[in-house]
């Protein structure tokens, strides 16, 4: 993604949008409405609940279950059962927040109304947009019907992660293909992580000597941050994995067990790869109701993603709207680690706006920090930490470009504890 500009809104437009809301009828009103009860939404709502003396915060979230999705790589590799990644949404909902159990159909930022699929219209003074990311299974022809059958799997789904492990165990050799799409995705390192773990699993059972592993990625390099890229290149060589760069999956033909890729940069060129095992990391995008709204970028590389300032996380056109998490059009990786750094910045700046301040040079600033715990096998991990511009942003006093068992333990136990007990409670 390109780094977005931060134009100042015209004074007249700013004054108009900060004035009294228009008169359309609403069914309920809250001072702050948070769209999304996933990682970003719950983390922000928890922090607001602690910061406000009399919080009037509503969280719009339809799901009864909350998932720690970074664990699905480990589920797909047989380390943990899928149930370990799930808790009830009620158990993570901040007690100070009002939970609205419905899906968002539309957002009208001019009228300050969130319309729900059930028909209710929720008014707000301030809006936090954090609905996460949409997985577009149907963007790959043949994928929805093929998924979960005859060697086609994906860790990007609660139930499919478990099936991935079953398919890894059932694989008897042949062509194993792992894909990564041309769109932004959550946890961009996951397509590689499951590949490295599958390689280890097949070596333990002796299947690996009868298999050829291909990493077909739309990217042009194995990883964007130099120090970690060098480590992963050595991992790929050690494991005898064959990368195919600029290969974007567009179709699966299960009847012939072929995957069709368009070659980026070579108009009209496609490549057929046979497979016996195919792990698909699907294309993703902002939720449709965001893409349809005035809150999204309407053109350019960030088209469809939430239009927020990359440092303050305030919307570039609507000063009473903020955004965080995977939906945000930010030039950094979409991870839970990014949310952990975004949430305190968003809350501090939202509180400043609520107190009548206009964000300026003293605003809290997000530097683009994200991290990717890159599992390179069972018992091995490198921890990639970086900020805007793919600049390294280490937080530990050790060289995390090296594969370490300690980092593997951090992934298995430390990060889930941080997530459930500190981050979602607004403490970290």
Fold and architecture overview:
- With 428 residues, this protein is an alpha/beta fold.
- Helices cover 28% and strands 25% of the residues.
- It contains eleven helices and 22 strands.
- The longest helix is centred in the C-terminal third of the chain and has 19 residues, at 336-354.
- Mean pLDDT is 94; it is low at 1-22.
The gist of it:
With 428 residues, the chain is an alpha/beta fold. 28% of the residues lie in helices and 25% in strands.
Query: What is the CA-based Rg, rounded?
Result: 22 Å
Helix content range of the residues, please?
25-40%
Mean pLDDT: 94
Count of individual beta strands = 22
Strand content: 15-25%
Helix/strand class: alpha/beta
First-to-last CA distance: 28 Å
The largest β sheet comes out as: 7 strands, mixed
Tally the helices: 11
Identify the overall geometry: globular
Low-confidence stretches: 1-22
Short key terms for the protein model shown above:
28% helix; disordered N terminus; 7-stranded mixed β-sheet; 11 helices; alpha/beta
Question: Could you give the topology of this structure?
Answer:
Layout: H1 11-18, E1 28-35, H2 39-51, E2 57-60, E3 65-67, H3 72-76, E4 86-88, H4 89-92, E5 97-100, E6 104-108, E7 113-116, E8 121-129, E9 134-135, H5 143-146, E10 152-153, H6 158-170, E11 174-180, H7 190-205, E12 211-217, H8 226-238, E13 241-244, E14 247-253, E15 258-263, E16 270-274, E17 277-279, E18 284-285, H9 288-291, E19 321-323, H10 336-354, E20 370-377, E21 380-387, E22 391-392, H11 405-423
Parallel strand pairs: 1-2, 1-8, 2-5, 8-19, 10-17, 11-12, 11-17, 12-13
Antiparallel strand pairs: 3-4, 6-7, 7-8, 9-18, 14-15, 15-16, 20-21, 21-22
Helix pairs in contact: 2-10
